[in-house]
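Fold this sequence, please.
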Amino acid sequence: MRIADFGVEIWMNRWEARCRYNLAETCVDSVTVAELLALAGLDPAGLAAELSPMRLDYGAIEGSGRLRAAIAALYGTVTPDRVLVAHGAIGANHLVYEALVEPGDVVVSVVPTYQQHVAVPESLGAEVRQVRLREAEGWRLDLDELADAARGAKLISITNPNNPTGALLDPDALARVAAIAGGQGAWILADEVYRGLDQDGPGTSQSFADLYPRTIAVGSMSKAFSLAGLRLGWIVAPPEVLAAISRHRDYSVISVGMVDDLLAALALEHAGGMLRRNRAIVRANLATLDGWVAEEPRISYVKPAAGTTALLRFDAPMSSEQFCTRLVEAEGVLLVPGSAFEVEGSVRIGYANDPAVLTAGLERTSAFLSTLRS
C-alpha cells in the first residue's frame, strides 16, 4: 500500500525534541500520574491497590467493561456495547477506513484536517472529494458545497472541533450535515478528539453519535483529557460496524495495555473535573493568544471557537516552512507550517500548553518578527 508522507508528523519528529518552546503541541497541558490520582481521589497506595492484583495478560480485547462504560457516559445515547477501544484516535481512524473503504468508494473529507482523513482513504483506492473551509468565510463549512460533494458518497469525514482551524459546527450545521449524509445513506466519520473544549457555554457540543444513527465517532485520551502518553482512543459505532472493524483490529491491535485501560477509566470516571481544568487552560490561554495577535501587525487569524489550535496568517516574504524553520532555529519556538495542511502563508499554533510556555514562546516569536520588520 502506497501512502503520502504525513507532513505534520514528519515535521514534529524532526523538531519536537529540539525546541525550547513547543507551540506545535495540540494536547492540553499533560497531567502527571500524581495529578490524575488527586483528581480521582486516590493516593499512590490506592493506585497500588488497583494495580497489585492485576494479572498482566492481554486483558479484555475490546476494552474493559469499566472503561467502555466510562466512554459511553461521555455521550447522551451511547451504550457500552457500541464502544471499541483502540490505540489512540489515529489507530481508531485507520481501522475505520480499513474496514469500510474499498477501491472506487467516494469519501468526502472536510479540509483542512488531520492528513490521515485524506491520505488513508486515497491509499485504499477511494475517490476523495475535498470540501475546503475558507479563511475569508471564518472557516465556516459551506453546506451546499458539502451536499454537492456528497452525491454518491459512502462516507463523510469531518473533524469537529476542527484541527487546525478551531472551527466548530453549531447545532443547525450539525443537523444539516446529518441530513446531507442521510440523504445519501452515507456514514459520518466524526473525529471528535477535541470535543469538550469549546470556548463558550457549557464547553461540550453535541456528538454526531447522538444525532445520526450512521455515525462512527472517534475520541481519544490525548487532547481534551491531557493523557496522550496512554495512547488510547475509541470508536463509537453500531454493532455491525464494530464487528467489521474488529476483523481488521485482530490483525493489528489485539488489545490495549491493561495499565493504560485502568488509568483511562480512572480519568473518564472523573471526566467532569478533567474537562473543567482543561477548559480553564484553553480559555485563559486563548485570551493570551488573542491579545498577542492584536498587537502583532504581521499576524492575523480567525479566532477559534473550540479545540486547542489556530491557524495564524503571517505577513513575510517566505514559505510557511521557511518561516517555521527560521523561527525554531533562531528562537527555539516550534510551530507547524501551514503547508502541512495545504494552507500556505499560515502556521498552526497549539495554545493549550503550560501558560508560562505559551507566554514565553509568544514573546520569542515577537522577537523573531521584529527582525523581519527591520
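The chain has a mean pLDDT of 96. The radius of gyration is 20 Å.
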